[in-house]
């Protein structure tokens, strides 16, 4: 019969994957393994977890086993890439699978090294897919992958060498991988840079069309360059010393030449060009980060290569719609000259295209070719550009101006002097900050509030921490006193404009700008404070602004007004136009302490002040023509936060306590304590002077009386002196006679003494001769005695020498005999030692034999002890059995005795009842006993 064929059971996906995995693991032929890999690849996109759990290690092992076969390697790498990027609709797709795959590679160094080996391969797909796979692993496990690549043999070198690949896909993939590998690790950045990466990156940029025509690859190369240079002083130094800054200059020059050609360019190409230029400017700014090492050298190198000039040409180019690029170029230019005094001084001499074209009646070409000095151009951009879409450009131009006079007091004074000269000359300069501040245009205020704001910010930076500039600007006045006009100082004019702006409810930015300027001006400047207080209505107007309700942004104005009042009170004095005591009284009555502190606190906690550092200071495109929320300057914000607590406490300081202001180490103004001290000293000295005059009069009277008494005493003394002189003459004549007599007596005594001395000398000479004779005799006797002793000593020495010779001969003989004896003793000792060694060896042998016998005896004793224990155990058991049997036997005997007594009683009872009892029964009963007796 024919059997009916049945359809085989359909395999599930997991079973199929298991079959392919087993085949890949066990197949011996390359074609079979490749077929299994192709089967796994077909499931990798939809079932990544199943394929990874069943075949991941087999796939990695296949890379190691079949690495020489290009087709197999390609299929394996494709399968692994599919596992890292499965279909979104796959039920098994998850981040955990990707992390598990990355762990499998990074937890074994040899797996990463294996992929790096394929990066060196010349095959297109092997190199491309291995780079993509490394990028996927790096994305999942960044730190581990960085460590594995860093520690792999020539890992970084092999990756950087791939930049030389002429195939764009491979090269671009390598750039992307290096971008992901280098953002944080300084060591990896250094290794990449020292593999000649800078030259290779510039070669790729040049090959791809540079900044002008380059695509996304150029942007990626610049991003990679930024990764290598960011906060890495070593790489920046290498870049600078390798001459790469000239390459940056060449790229920028090429861009400027392309802009001059005015060639038409597609919108997408222009967008890519802008991205390239923005990335290029970002790279330049990395060399100029504040506080980094080598900033000064980088600034000098940029200036030397002409980058500052070319950046300015880019910022002031005539191309429209490039606000972001131009703004970034101005920011970069500001970084290039900030705090570099030689560059700041030379910067003002550069010429740039006029930013705001003015119709001069000439032809268009001459208008387009108009040039202006860079400072004038920056002021034009900042103050006279009313297009809100160009706000970022205006803001950057202001930042560039601030960088121009940053930490350079001479440049700040020069800038301010030019502004003052232009203002005093009444010239029509729309780009003069003093003209804007002191003579505001009402129409311009309504159209562009930031004009006043930028002018105030620039003036604030000119005056901040610069007492000389403050004094210079304070001298600027309005009005001619010779024509009976009221003279108004510049600070009073600005205060009046501030109060007018607040009263008219002008845009808050105008008032904020004025307030920032006045706060910076009056801080630690007694003259400015006194000038401000000279106008009595200023304080009242500020208090009114603080007390009344205001619009939403009025919180800023109220807080700054309170801060300004606090600063003015802090540095006011007893001699101010509004005395410190009166000022404090006004503040206490019209503005209580709680309200003052509440206004300051609200300003400090306002998002525009509190979050200033993390808030973007740019005009967002979504705002359109609306004004951005930019109200404060960065330096002012730092100044406010630093002095917030001090000004908050100022209202609690008593009026009698004044603040001393130190300027350049010297106290400014007159110390109130010193004045009071000097006044008390002057009073004390006046009183002392009056007392001294009184004393002088009394002393003169006493002197006159004493002079009269002196004349009288002098006359009496003269009479007494004449008497004394006469008596002296008489005494003198008597004394001369007495002296002559004493002289004669002295001469006689002297002659007598000379005779005595002569006799003493004769006696002394005789004694000396006697002593000399005795000395000669003693010397002769001593000499003879010495000679005798010497001869005796020589004889004794000769005897001793002879004795020594004999003793030496005896010692030699004794040494010979002792040597023979010692040799004999040594030979005897050697024999004894050998004998002792033999005996020791024999004793050791006997000891080892005895130990063996002892061990055997111990073993035998142990066996005997075990046997004795077994016998004792057996005897014990037999004894127990015997006792048991004896007990049972005793019990049986007792039972038999009882039975015999019962039988005898039964026989007796039967006989009494008349029954015959035969003897045979007795015999039968006794028979066993008889038999037993016979046997016994």
From TrEMBL:
Swiss-Prot/TrEMBL keywords: Coiled coil, Golgi apparatus
Domain Vesicle tethering protein Uso1/P115-like head: 342-651
Cell compartment(s), UniProt: Golgi apparatus
Highest taxon in the source lineage: Eukaryota
Keyword Coiled coil found: yes
InterPro entries attached to this UniProt entry: ARM-like, ARM-type_fold, Uso1_p115_C, Vesicle_P115, Vesicle_Uso1_P115_head
Region spans: Disordered: 910-936
GO cellular component, one term: ER to Golgi transport vesicle membrane
Record flagged with keyword Coiled coil: yes
Residue stretches of biased makeup (Acidic residues): 916-936
Residue span, Uso1/p115-like vesicle tethering protein C-terminal domain: 822-932
One BP term from GO: Golgi vesicle docking
PANTHER family: GENERAL VESICULAR TRANSPORT FACTOR P115
Name of the protein in question: Uncharacterized protein
Provenance organism: Metarhizium anisopliae BRIP 53293
């Amino acid at each position: 019969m024919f059997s009916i064929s049945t359809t085989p059971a359909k395999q599930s996906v997991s079973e199929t994957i298991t079959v392919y995995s087993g085949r890949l693991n066990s197949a011996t032929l390359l074609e079979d393994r490749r077929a299994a890999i192709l089967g796994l690849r077909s499931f990798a996109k939809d079932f990544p977890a199943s394929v990874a759990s069943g075949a991941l290690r087999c796939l990695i092992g296949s890379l190691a086993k079949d690495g020489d076969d290009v087709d197999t390697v390609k299929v394996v790498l494709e399968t692994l890439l599919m596992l890292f990027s499965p279909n979104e609709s796959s039920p098994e797709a998850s981040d955990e699978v990707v992390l598990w795959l990355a762990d499998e590679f990074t937890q074994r160094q040899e797996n990463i090294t294996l992929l790096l080996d394929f990066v060196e391969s010349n095959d297109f797909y092997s190199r491309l897919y291995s780079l993509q796979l490394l990028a996927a692993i790096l994305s999942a496990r960044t730190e581990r992958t960085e460590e594995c690549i860093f520690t792999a043999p020539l890992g970084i070198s092999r990756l950087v060498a791939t930049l030389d690949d002429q195939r764009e896909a491979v090269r671009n993939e390598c750039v992307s991988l290096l971008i992901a590998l280098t953002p944080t690790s300084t060591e990896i950045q250094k290794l990449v840079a020292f593999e000649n990466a800078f030259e290779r990156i510039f070669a790729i940029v040049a090959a791809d069309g540079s900044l002008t025509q380059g695509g996304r690859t150029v942007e990626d190369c610049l991003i990679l360059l930024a990764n290598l240079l960011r906060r890495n002083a070593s790489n920046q130094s290498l870049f600078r010393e390798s001459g790469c800054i000239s390459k940056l200059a060449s790229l920028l020059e090429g861009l400027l030449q392309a802009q001059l050609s005015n060639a038409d360019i597609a919108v997408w190409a222009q967008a890519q060009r802008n991205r390239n230029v923005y990335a290029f400017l970002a790279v330049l700014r990395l060399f100029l980060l504040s506080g980094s090492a080598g900033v000064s050298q980088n600034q000098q190198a940029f200036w030397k290569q002409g980058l500052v000039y070319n950046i300015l040409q880019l910022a002031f180019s005539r191309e429209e719609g490039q606000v972001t690029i131009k703004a970034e170029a101005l920011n970069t230019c500001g970084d290039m000259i900030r705090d570099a005094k030689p560059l700041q001084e030379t910067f003002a001499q550069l010429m740039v295209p006029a930013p705001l074209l003015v119709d001069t009646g000439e032809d268009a070409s001459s208008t387009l070719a108009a040039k202006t000095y860079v400072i004038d151009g920056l002021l034009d951009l900042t103050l006279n550009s009313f297009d809100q879409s160009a706000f970022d450009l205006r803001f950057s131009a202001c930042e560039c101006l601030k960088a121009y006079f940053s930490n350079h007091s001479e440049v700040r004074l020069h800038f301010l002097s030019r502004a003052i000269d232009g203002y005093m000359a009444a010239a029509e300069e729309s780009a003069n900050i003093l003209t804007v501040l002191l003579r505001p245009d009402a129409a311009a205020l309504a159209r562009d509030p930031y004009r006043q704001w930028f002018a105030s910010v620039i003036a604030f930076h000119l005056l901040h921490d610069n007492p000389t500039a403050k004094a210079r600007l304070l001298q600027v006045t309005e009005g001619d006193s010779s024509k009976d006009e009221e003279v108004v100082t510049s600070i009073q004019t600005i205060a009046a404009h501030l109060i007018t702006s607040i009263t008219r409810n002008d845009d808050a930015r105008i008032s904020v700008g004025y307030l920032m300027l006045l706060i910076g001006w009056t801080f630690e400047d007694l003259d400015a404070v006194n000038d401000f207080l000279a106008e009595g209505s200023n304080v009242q107007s500020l208090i009114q602004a603080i007390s009344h309700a205001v619009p939403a942004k009025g919180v800023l104005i109220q807080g700054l007004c309170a801060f300004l009042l606090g600063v003015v009170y802090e540095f006011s004095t007893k001699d101010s136009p509004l005395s410190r005591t009166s000022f404090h009284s006004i503040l206490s009555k019209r503005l209580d302490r709680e309200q003052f502190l509440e206004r300051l606190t609200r300003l400090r906690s306002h998002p525009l002040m509190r979050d200033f550092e993390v808030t973007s200071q740019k005009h967002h495109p979504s705002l359109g023509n609306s004004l951005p929320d930019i109200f404060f300057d960065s330096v002012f914000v730092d100044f406010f936060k630093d002095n917030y607590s001090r000004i908050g406490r100022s209202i609690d300081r008593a009026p009698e306590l004044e603040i001393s202001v130190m300027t350049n180490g010297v106290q400014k103004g007159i110390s109130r304590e010193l004045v009071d001290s000097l006044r008390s000293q002057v009073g004390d000295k006046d009183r002392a002077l009056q007392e001294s005059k009184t004393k002088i009069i009394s002393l003169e009277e006493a002197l006159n009386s004493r002079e009269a008494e002196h004349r009288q005493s002098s006359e009496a003394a003269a009479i007494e002196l004449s008497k004394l002189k006469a008596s002296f003459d008489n005494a003198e004549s008597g004394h001369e006679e007495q002296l002559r007599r004493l002289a004669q007596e002295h001469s006689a005594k002297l002659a007598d003494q000379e005779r005595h001395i002569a006799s003493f000398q004769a006696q002394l000479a005789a004694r000396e001769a006697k002593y000399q004779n005795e000395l000669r005799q003693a010397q002769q006797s001593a000499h003879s005695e010495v000679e005798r002793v010497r001869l005796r000593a020589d004889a004794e020495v000769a005897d001793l020498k002879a004795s020594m010779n004999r003793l030496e001969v005896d010692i030699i003989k004794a040494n010979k005999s002792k040597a023979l004896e010692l040799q004999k003793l040594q030979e005897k000792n050697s024999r004894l030692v050998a004998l002792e060694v033999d005996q020791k060896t024999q004793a050791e042998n006997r000891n080892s034999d005895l130990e063996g016998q002892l061990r055997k005896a111990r073993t035998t004793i142990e066996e005997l002890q075990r046997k004795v224990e077994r016998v004792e155990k057996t005897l014990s058991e037999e004894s127990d059995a015997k006792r048991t049997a004896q007990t049972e036997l005793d019990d049986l005997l007792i039972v038999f005795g009882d039975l015999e007594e019962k039988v005898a009683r039964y026989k007796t009872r039967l006989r009494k009842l008349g029954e015959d009892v035969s003897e045979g029964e007795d015999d039968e009963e006794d028979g066993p006993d008889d038999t037993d007796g016979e046997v016994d």
